[in-house]
Amino acid sequence: MRTTESLSNYSNLDQMTATQLLEAINSEDHSVPEAVAKSIPQIEALVNGIVERMRRGGRVFYIGAGTSGRLGVVDASEIPPTYGVRDKFIGLIAGGDTAIRSAVEGAEDDTQQAWKDILPYNPTPDDTVVGLAASGSTPYVIGGLETARRNGLLTGCVTCNEGAPIAESCEMPVVAVVGPEFVTGSTRMKAGTAEKLILNMISTSVMVLLGHVKGSRMVDMELTNSKLVDRGTRMIMEATGIVDYDSAKALLLKYGHVRQAVEAYFRK
After folding, report:
1. Catalytic residue of the set 28, 108, 146, 181
2. Has residue 1 got a pLDDT over 70?
3. Any catalytic annotation for residue 108?
4. Is the separation of the CB atoms in 223 and 255 below 8 Å?
């Protein structure tokens, strides 16, 4: 039996109080970062492979179904506003965008569909496909990885079961075994949390290594709301020594990004 399908460590959930449920869930969640920490060497190898290819113009495709697919879509969608980089991380979910909100029956069972979903993007060997499957056996993901690998793309995966078929389908597997779920088989819980943490680590590390962070600042972030304009203004004040808030804000709005504004200031 797969670890993600094994019985919960708790057998009496329906008899617990709210406090007992919350404390038990929190206790289980503490094991997740420890499991992820053990997979850091695997994550490092995948990150380095992605960075090497992105420097040549490559992209990352996340492919997944259900919770795993949604997590990939979320991570990819955060890259443009956070780092000002568009069309470099692409999240694809079995069943298409409809499946982000509602289950699409049978979508994850098609071994050919993931590659069909990638094809409109004109994939090249500089691209990377990362398959996301807590169970490690999703046909949509395995089929996509196998086809991508045959076509020369770098392939990796994130799963939560040791010896999962998905790990055999790719070159760079990341395996974080988090143990039984609090609700038996509900992989949106610990397994989903592990996947989210790993995706954060992958995309953040890649963006930092590609130069989209200076110090700890998101110098290429998009100015999509007033909070980010304020953050960017204060970043410019800090980087340039400008003490007048309005002057720093005007500089930011003129150039559109913190990086360009700061560089323009020092070119004067």
Report:
1. 108
2. no
3. yes
4. no
At 252, list the tokens: 């930011």
Q: Is 44 a catalytic residue?
A: no
For the record, the structure tokens of 185 come out as 């088989």
Q: How far apart are CA 118 and CA 129, in angstroms?
A: 9
At 189 the pLDDT is 96
Rounded mean pLDDT, 4-13: 92
Whether the CB-CB separation of 138 and 95 falls below 8 Å is answered with no
220 close to 259: Cβ distance less than 8 angstroms: yes
Beta bridge mates, 131: 63, 157
Please measure the distance between the N-terminal and C-terminal CA atoms of the chain and give it in whole angstroms. 66
**34 Cβ contact list (under 8 Å, min separation 6):** none
Query: How far is the C-alpha of 206 from the C-alpha of 212, rounded, in Å?
Result: 9
Nearest to 171 by CA among 136, 129, 137, 126: 129
Q: How far apart (Å, rounded) are the C-alpha atoms in residues 128 and 21?
A: 40
Smallest CA-to-CA distance from 142 within 118, 168, 124 is with 168
d(CA 84, CA 88): 10
Burial (Cβ within 10 Å: 0-12, 13-18, ≥19) of residue 56: exposed
Q: Which is the catalytic residue, given 78, 171, 222, 238? A: 78
Name, in order, each residue with C-beta under 8 angstroms of 205's C-beta and a sequence gap of 6 or more: 43, 47
Plot region of 222 (φ>0 → left; ψ -120 to 50 → alpha; else → beta): beta
For residue range 71-88, list pLDDT tens digits in order. Answer: 999 999 999 999 999 999
Instruction: Report whether pLDDT(105) > 80.
Output: no
